[in-house]
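Hello,

Our lab assistant flagged a job as stuck in the queue for most of the afternoon. It eventually completed. Since we weren't sure the result was trustworthy after the delay, we are filing this so someone can double-check. Below is the sequence as submitted and the structure that was eventually returned. Let us know if re-running is recommended.
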Amino acid sequence: MAVFGERLFLSFYKDSGIPATLVWLPTSGTSTAPPTLAPFPSWELHKNDNCDSIQSAKGMETDTDGRLWVLDQGSKKCPGKLWLFDLLYNDTIERVHQFPARVISPSFNERLLLDIVLDNSPDDNLAYITDSDSAHIIVYSRKRDKSWSVKTPGRKWYSLALSANREARRLYLGRYGSNELYSISVSELKNEGGSAAVKLIGEWTKFNLYRMVIDNANVLYAAFYRQNYLSKWNISEPFREQRFHEVGILDSGRPFTLALDTTNTLWMTERNKSESGSSSFKLLEAAVGAKSYLFSTSTVSTDVDETSEQQEITESSLRYKSTPPPSLKTIETQSLLGVFFINPSPRSQFIGQTQQRSQSLISLPFLILLQTCHCVADPENGKNVHFPGQHTVF
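-- returned structure --
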């Protein structure tokens, strides 16, 4: 489960009768009627045993730059992969990384890819991944398009979560068949082919922690196999488990999934069995007062930096970036709502002209809304590029 803007992404087992392993639905709306699930990004990417398609989406995460990262377990015929989709450019495939045999077994029966978290820094985007059939953590570097493994001798991991404190970031880990919670310093995960020392943090009341997530207020939320409740713990305090959400009897092995968005909301799915024996799902949301761990409190700013040449916000993040955004692409869009942040410097290039501004003026953010617009600004000359039969709405 993952959230970006007003879209929520869910993964399913194909053998459960659902023809797509990855779907999405809108988060907005007040109707309680069962929503229509749309395949992501299209039906073409959900062909069984076609290795150019997603075979079995497991862990998912969205980053602050508008990418959806999808961990693909593969199939008996297709290897495990990591898919990166650009949600800001028509859900296009940015990259597909096939894990080499030295990192993840090419044999379907010798790998079990389950979970993924993202570690975004100014110089790279790293992903940490669990392969529950191997005693190691998998690391992927987007900058280098390279993956490697870090050994954790004697321990195989099922679930993981990442803290928001960038200065002392730690990866929290859970094992199947255990109630123990461990952690690793992320600095040790950059040691390609090396080993990492794990630290025991505490013990949960129940066994088999299968999913967890941490918000940027340091609260960890955890779901357990065949348990009808969620637990939480503030990782900045001594370990103490607290009940967070509890329901009646749930006849399901993994009843909950979790995801945090940018509006201080925790999204949850709740799975149960109906009287007929079929599975039923509820979509729930809770106001928790914090965002995803990706919005580290040490990197979020509320001040406009007038010395910055160019800054950007995306549909989801509203987080100031320290580097300029990439050049706009001349693409045909369908019902696009694009939001860009411009920090007007003394010479600021707007659409079609260069405008002088006094140094004494206060720089303010400008929002440009492109609604059903088949046009973009050409960054080379500042002029609009129009497509026939369309007009621009600003």
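-- support follow-up --
The delay was a queue issue, not a problem with the job. The result is valid. The chain has two domains: 2-287, 301-394. The chain has a mean pLDDT of 79.
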